[in-house]
């Protein structure tokens, strides 16, 4: 088990499964990569939609990933699906926010893509009354 302390002073517990010598007391290190990617992209999408004055109530980002079968078991493919909930959302704004995050702003996504990971994105809009 490892405690990782960020430069901003926050702590994250990481561990492995018992069959790999861990005690299953925290997230796996590779899971933290996906969590970071999801957080980075979500922050961008929310920020861009807020600047576009879209009435968003929730953004949930679902990630699916595949890893190589052999060591090092790097990510080979990651798909991000943004589920954007709000009132009167314009699809063009949601699409633009997702595209800008992927192509310009999300440093985690861009870095992983440059390292050869196939990264894809899509979105779903959930309209509420």
UniProtKB/TrEMBL annotation:
Name this protein carries in UniProt: Putative redox protein
Record organism: Halopseudomonas yangmingensis
Classification via InterPro entries: KH_dom-like_a/b, OsmC/Ohr_fam, OsmC/Ohrsf
Location of the region described as Disordered in the Swiss-Prot/TrEMBL record: 1-23
């Amino acid at each position: 088990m490892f405690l990782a302390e960020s430069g901003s002073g926050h702590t994250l517990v990481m561990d492995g499964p018992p069959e790999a010598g861990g005690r299953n007391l925290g997230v796996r290190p590779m899971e933290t990569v996906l969590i970071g990617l999801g957080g980075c992209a979500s922050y961008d999408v929310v920020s861009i939609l807020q600047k576009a004055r879209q009435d968003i109530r929730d953004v949930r980002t679902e990630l699916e990933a595949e890893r190589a079968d052999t060591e090092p078991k790097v990510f080979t493919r990651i798909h991000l699906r943004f589920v954007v909930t709000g009132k009167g959302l314009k699809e063009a704004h949601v699409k633009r926010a997702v595209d800008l995050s992927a192509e310009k702003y999300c440093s985690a996504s861009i870095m992983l893509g440059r390292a050869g990971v196939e990264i894809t994105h899509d979105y779903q809009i959930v309209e509420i009354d």
